[in-house]
Amino acid sequence: MADIIDGKAFAAGLREEVREGVTAFAAKAGRAPGLAVVLVGEDPASAVYVRSKHKACVTAGMESFEHHLPAETSEADLLALIGQLNADPAVDGILVQLPLPKHIDETKVIEAIDPDKDVDGFTTASAGRLATGQDGFVACTPLGCLMLLKDRLGDLSGKSAVIVGRSNIVGKPMAMLLLKESCTVTIAHSRTQDLAHVIGGADIVVAAVGRPEMVKGAWLKPGATVIDVGINRVPAAEEGKTKLVGDVAFDEAMEVAAAVTPVPGGVGPMTIACLLHNTLAAAKRREGIA
Ligand SMILES: Nc1nc2c(c(=O)[nH]1)N[C@@H](CN(C=O)c1ccc(C(=O)N[C@@H](CCC(=O)O)C(=O)O)cc1)CN2
């Protein structure tokens, strides 16, 4: 039976580390790091995530600047707000909660964020910096996956890694991070032929495809480490109820792998902990503090 990788506990440790870092930062800089979070509209899941981010920020001793705009906000008004936040010296990190309402061009809004405040790591500049080995911010979810992998496996050099999913915010940055760790990286996607065979050769599997329990236990190499990024709500056995499952068939994977992240309680909590980590790093860079 595989070990369960406890992302919730790891994230709590990271948040505590950040809290201590914030205290040291404030003593030197005479101010707390500041994170601006922009939420447009009433998406209930987004509202929950933004509340969690605010609470985590305050608990870590950071300033949280919340901007909750109505769903009808125009793209021009949102871009104007980003411009103000870019220029605000109290703001070290800017995050625009996704998804945005359909009438707003997400790419245009993300690209408007100053890369030095892009604590979500979503701008083209941040992606380019990661791809070329320059200092910059790494998207929080893949950064959290990497931390869990390094904690579990230590040196990743030479390991074979398969990432299922090629999104700009998880699959691609994950591939860059694992390449930087000298893994042999394969990105699988919806057109990949014989996915079972591709996954079967991997020491590390990162599933980020958004399809409930798509990766089967029988596809895994015995002893693999499995990181499940998927958060899918599906009907539960009890009539009218729902439950969360990942992109990996968890019970099957537990029979074959060496270690698996659960859903919930695996990668998800790392996302917010890494956001705090990036915000502290942004503040230190802006103040020239090592
Ligand atoms: N600007 C951003 N937008 C979005 C991001 C992001 O990183 N930046 N990621 C997601 C949502 N998200 C944070 O924003 C997020 C998702 C899930 C979790 C989490 O802890 N999940 C729990 C389960 C939660 C539940 O019960 O529903 C878990 O997996 O244990 C945290 C943050 C999209 N938008």
From TrEMBL:
It comes from the Bacteria. Keywords: Amino-acid biosynthesis, Histidine biosynthesis, Hydrolase, Methionine biosynthesis, Multifunctional enzyme, NADP, One-carbon metabolism, Oxidoreductase, Purine biosynthesis. GO terms for molecular function: methenyltetrahydrofolate cyclohydrolase activity; methylenetetrahydrofolate dehydrogenase (NADP+) activity. Residues 5-120 form the Tetrahydrofolate dehydrogenase/cyclohydrolase catalytic domain. Transmembrane segments: none annotated. Homodimer. This is Bifunctional protein FolD. It comes from Croceicoccus mobilis. The lineage of its organism: Bacteria, Pseudomonadati, Pseudomonadota, Alphaproteobacteria, Sphingomonadales. The gene is folD.
